[in-house]
Design a protein that fits this description.
The structure holds two protein chains of two kinds. In chain A, 75% of the residues lie in helices and 2% in strands. Chain A has 20 helices and three strands. A two-stranded antiparallel sheet of chain A has the order 2-3. In chain A, a hairpin with a 2-residue loop joins strand 2 (330-331) and strand 3. In chain A, helix 5 runs antiparallel to helix 6 (120-158), helix 11 (224-235) runs antiparallel to helix 18 and helix 15 crosses helix 16. Chain A is globular, with a radius of gyration of 26 Å. Chain B is an alpha/beta fold. Chain B has helices spanning 7-28, 44-52, 96-107, 122-135, 146-151, 158-165, 180-191, 206-221, 230-239, 242-270; strands at 31-38, 56-61, 66-75, 78-84, 112-118, 139-144, 154-156, 169-171. Chain B has a seven-stranded mixed β-sheet with strand order 2-3-4-1-5-6-8, with helices on both faces. In chain B, helix 8 (206-221) packs across helix 9 (230-239). Classes of the chains: A mainly alpha, B alpha/beta. Chains A and B meet through helix 1, helix 3, strand 1 and helix 10 of A and helix 4, strand 7, helix 6, helix 8 and helix 9 of B.
C-alpha cells in the first residue's frame, strides 16, 4: 500500500533528515548554494576571457573590502559615524545664523502687531505660538537635514546600501528573519512608513510581519533631527572638535542600538508569536556608479529635506499655536501645559524624563519632527529667551529645567524606541489589514521604550550617577 | 495587499491545477511544450517575442500578479508552445516566482527548457542554468546578449561551455535575430527528435555528497525516479521547507494514480 501513498514515506525521510540539516555549523542549504557558486565561478573562469581585465577589477577590489568579513562592519561604522560628525559639526554655524535671522524677524513681526494695535492673544497665538515654533523647526532642523540627506543620498547613489544589506544578511538570518529585511530597514532610515510599505518585497507573510513590527527601531528622517539636535545641543557647548566627535559617536551608538534591538525583537518574535525558519535571499550587488551630483542634490534637497521640513511645518504651525494656548490658559494659577506636565511628571521621572518631554512625545504622535520644537516651546512658554546668542543658549534652557546627562540620554533613547508616528501606524494598518498587528506595532516599541528607559534611569538613580 | 498566513499553500494548490491545464494543452494537440527560464533582465522576453512573433497571449498565474506569457510558433511543420516563466535568479524557491518556475520545470515536464543567460554576466547566470539541469535533462542553454558582450570585449568559448555543461549551448543576440535559427534547431532536435542531452552535475563538497548518498537508498525505495531526479530530490530534502516536500508527494501520488489507471484500462482492453 505504501507505494500507492508515497506522501508519508517521503515526509518521513524529510523529518529523518532533520538531524543532518541541523547537525553541522553551517546549514546544508548554505553549503549547497556555496558549492553551486564555486562551480559557476570555476566554469566562468574557464570559458570567459576579458580583453581588458583592468577596468573591472578595481570595482571587485573595492567590494572585497566593503563586504569582507574583517572590514565590512568597521567600515560601516566608520561611514555612519563620519556622516553624523559632518552633520553635527557642519550644522552649528548655519543653525546659529538662521536662528538670528528668524528671531530678528520675530521682533519685527511683534513690532508690526503693536503698530496695528492687535490684541495680545492674537499676537500670542500667531507670533509667539505659530511663528516661533516654525522658526525653531527651521533653525534646529533645516541645517542638519540639508547636510545629512545629501550625504545619505550620496551613499545610496554609490550603491553602498545593498552592500550593507549583504553585510547584515547573516545577522538577520541568525534572528530568523529575512535578509531582505535589511533593505526595508534601510528604507526605514528614510521614513518608517515608506519602510513598512517596502516590506512588500518580502514574500513570506511571517517574515514580512516581523519586518513591519520592527521597522520602527531605526530612526527615520523625522527622528534623526531630534537625535542630532539633542546631542549637538547638549553634548557640545563649544565648537570644539572633540565634542562634535563625541556627539557623532553618541548618535552612531544609538543607531547601532536601534539595529541591535531590531535583531533582538525579530528574534524574539520568531521564537514566540511568529515562529518559523528564515529563508535566504539572492541579492544582486549593483555596480558602483559615479553619483550624479545634480541628481543627488535635487533628490536630497527637494525630495527629502523640503518634504520633511514641509511636513514638519504643516504640523508644527497648529501644534505651536496649541502649545501657546495651553501655556497661557490657566486653571487656578497653573497653566494647562504645566498641569498636564505635572500629571505626567511622576511617570516621566521614573523613566528619566520629565513631564514636558513625555508630553512633547505624545503631542508629537502626528509627526516626530515636532517633538523638539514643542519641547522648547513649552519650556520657553513662560520665560522668554531674551538674548539669543547661539544654539548653545538652548543648553542653558535645558539645564535650567533640570536636565542632566541622563535626561538627554533617555530622551534620545525614548525617541529611538517609542511608538511610531501616526502615518506609520496607518501604513501598518493598510499593509497588514489587521487592527491586532497594528496594535502590536504600537505596543511593542512603547513597552520597550518604557522598560529600557526605566531600567537605565533606576540604575542611574540607584548608583547616584544622576 | 493583505497578509494571510497560509495563503501560500493555496497558491500552490492552484499551481497544480494550472499545471494540469498545461498538460491538457499538450495532450489535445500535436504541440511540444517548451519552457523559457532565465534571470530577470537577460532579454528573455526578447527571445520569447522573437520566437513567437505575434502569436502570443498573456496568461496570469494565480496567487501573485506574476505575468506568464504563452505563445506558439511553428518550425519545420511542428507546433511549439512556449511558456515564459517568471524571471528568477535561482530555483531554491525563496519567492513565489521561483516556486512557479521550479514547479513548472519539475512537474510540467516540458519537452525542452530553454535557459536564457546574460553573456555579460555568465558567472551569475550559470547558477540558474545548473539548477535547471539538476531537475531536467532536456535543457538548452541560450547565451543571449552576445552583442553586448562583444561591446564589453568579452569573448566566450561556447564549445568549451557546451562540453563542460553537457547540454546544447546556443549563442544569440535576440534583439538582432542573431542565432535564433540555431536555437529553433536545437529545440527541434531535443523536443521532436528526442535527442538526449547528458547534463553534467554540480560537484558538491564532500559533506553534501555524503548526505546525498545517505538519502539516496531511502529515496530509491519509493520508486519515484520517473517523476523526479532522485539526486535533486535528495538535495531538496536537505534544504527545502516542508511545503515543497508535500507538493512533491501530492504530485507523485497523482502521477502514480494515472499509471495505475492506465494499466487498468490496458488490462481491460487485452481481456
Amino acid at each position: 500500500m505504501s507505494t500507492l501513498n508515497p506522501m508519508n514515506p517521503l515526509l518521513k525521510i524529510y523529518f529523518d533528515t532533520e538531524s543532518i540539516r541541523l547537525s553541522s555549523g553551517t546549514p546544508i542549504a548554505d553549503r549547497v548554494v556555496t558549492d553551486i557558486f564555486n562551480y559557476t565561478e570555476q566554469l566562468a573562469k574557464q570559458v570567459v576571457f576579458r580583453e581588458d581585465p583592468l577596468q573591472v577589477s578595481w570595482k571587485d577590489k573595492i567590494d572585497k573590502i566593503v563586504i569582507s568579513r574583517v572590514f565590512g562592519y568597521p567600515l560601516m561604522l566608520l561611514l555612519l559615524g563620519a556622516v553624523f560628525w559632518l552633520t553635527i559639526a557642519g550644522a552649528n554655524v548655519p543653525s546659529k545664523m538662521l536662528a538670528s535671522v528668524l528671531f530678528a524677524f520675530q521682533d519685527l513681526l511683534t513690532h508690526w502687531f503693536q503698530l496695528v494695535q492687535a490684541p495680545a492673544w492674537l499676537h500670542g497665538v500667531l507670533v509667539l505660538g505659530m511663528y516661533r515654533t516654525l522658526a525653531w523647526v527651521t533653525a534646529v532642523m533645516l541645517p542638519p537635514m540639508a547636510i545629512f540627506f545629501p550625504l545619505f543620498t550620496l551613499l545610496e547613489d554609490l550603491g553602498y546600501l545593498p552592500r550593507v544589506a549583504f553585510n547584515l544578511d547573516n545577522m538577520f538570518k541568525k534572528a530568523n528573519a529575512c535578509g531582505k529585511q535589511c533593505l526595508t530597514m534601510c528604507m526605514g532610515f528614510g521614513c518608517n512608513a515608506a519602510g513598512i510599505v517596502s516590506t512588500r518585497i518580502i514574500d513570506s507573510p511571517r517574515e514580512r510581519l516581523v519586518a513591519i513590527l520592527t521597522n520602527n527601531f531605526v530612526p527615520c528622517n523625522g527622528r534623526f533631527p531630534t537625535l542630532i539636535a539633542i546631542s549637538s545641543i547638549f553634548m557640545t557647548s563649544t565648537l570644539a572638535f572633540s565634542q562634535s566627535l563625541l556627539a557623532a559617536g553618541m548618535i552612531t551608538l544609538l543607531v547601532l542600538l536601534g539595529v541591535a534591538i531590531t535583531f533582538a525583537v525579530s528574534w524574539a518574535l520568531s521564537k514566540t508569536i511568529l515562529r518559523g525558519e528564515p529563508s535566504s535571499l539572492v541579492l544582486e550587488l549593483p555596480p558602483y556608479r559615479r553619483p550624479k551630483v545634480g541628481a543627488v542634490f535635487y533628490r536630497s534637497i527637494i525630495d527629502r529635506t523640503v518634504f520633511v521640513l514641509r511636513r514638519a511645518i504643516v504640523i508644527a504651525a497648529p501644534a505651536g499655536a496649541l502649545t501657546w494656548i495651553l501655556a497661557n490658559v490657566y486653571i487656578g494659577d497653573v497653566s494647562v501645559i504645566a498641569y498636564i506636565a505635572g500629571v505626567l511628571d511622576p511617570l516621566a521621572k521614573a523613566i528619566g524624563l520629565d513631564g514636558f518631554i513625555l508630553m512633547a512625545f505624545i503631542l508629537g504622535l502626528p509627526a516626530n519632527e515636532i517633538v523638539v520644537p514643542i519641547l522648547l516651546m513649552s519650556y520657553l512658554a513662560t520665560g522668554q529667551l531674551t538674548e539669543f546668542e547661539s544654539l548653545f543658549e538652548l543648553k542653558k534652557v535645558l539645564l535650567a529645567n533640570g536636565w542632566t546627562w541622563l535626561t538627554a540620554f533617555n530622551t534620545m533613547l525614548f525617541a529611538l524606541l517609542h511608538w511610531p508616528c501616526a502615518t506609520t501606524l496607518l501604513s501598518m494598518f493598510k499593509e497588514t489589514g489587521s487592527k491586532k498587528w497594528t496594535f502590536m506595532g504600537f505596543i511593542i516599541p512603547t513597552a520597550l521604550a518604557f522598560t529600557v528607559c526605566f531600567i537605565i534611569a533606576q540604575v542611574a538613580y540607584l548608583l547616584g550617577l544622576a | 495587499m493583505k497578509i494571510k498566513i497560509g495563503d501560500r499553500s493555496n497558491a500552490l494548490k492552484d499551481h497544480g491545477r494550472i499545471m494540469r491545464e498545461h498538460f491538457g494543452i499538450r495532450t489535445t494537440g500535436e504541440q511540444y511544450v517548451i519552457a523559457l527560464a532565465g534571470n530577470p533582465n537577460v532579454g528573455k522576453s526578447t527571445v520569447f517575442n522573437a520566437l513567437t512573433g505575434l502569436h502570443q497571449h498573456t496568461g496570469n498565474w494565480p496567487g501573485k500578479t506574476v505575468d506568464n506569457a504563452q505563445g506558439t510558433y511553428s518550425y519545420r511543420n511542428k507546433s511549439f508552445l512556449l511558456i515564459d516563466l517568471p524571471g528568477t535568479y535561482s530555483l531554491l524557491a525563496h519567492s513565489v516566482e521561483e516556486e512557479i518556475a521550479r514547479d513548472f520545470i519539475c512537474f510540467g515536464q516540458p519537452d525542452a527548457t530553454i535557459v536564457v543567460l546574460d553573456a555579460t554576466s555568465l558567472e551569475r547566470n550559470l547558477n540558474l542554468a545548473l539548477q535547471v539541469m539538476e531537475i531536467s535533462s532536456n535543457v538548452i542553454i541560450c547565451v543571449n546578449l552576445i552583442d553586448e558582450a562583444r561591446k564589453k570585449k568579452l569573448s566566450i568559448n561556447f564549445n568549451e561551455l557546451q562540453k563542460e555543461l553537457g547540454v546544447p549551448v546556443v549563442p544569440t543576440a535576440a534583439r538582432n535575430g542573431e542565432g535564433l535559427q540555431e536555437l529553433q534547431d536545437a529545440v527541434y532536435t531535443m523536443a521532436v527528435e528526442k535527442k538526449k542531452a547528458w547534463p553534467k552535475q554540480v560537484p558538491y563538497s564532500e559533506e553534501v555528497e555524503q548526505a546525498i548518498c545517505a538519502l539516496l537508498p531511502k529515496i530509491e525505495e519509493l520508486d519515484l525516479a520517473r517523476v523526479v531526479n532522485p539526486k535533486w530530490l535528495a538535495l531538496r530534502l536537505l534544504d527545502s521547507d516542508v511545503s515543497f516536500i508535500e507538493t512533491i508527494s501530492r504530485y507523485a501520488a497523482t502521477q502514480k494514480q494515472k499509471t495505475v489507471e492506465l494499466q487498468h484500462q490496458w488490462g481491460e482492453l487485452t481481456l
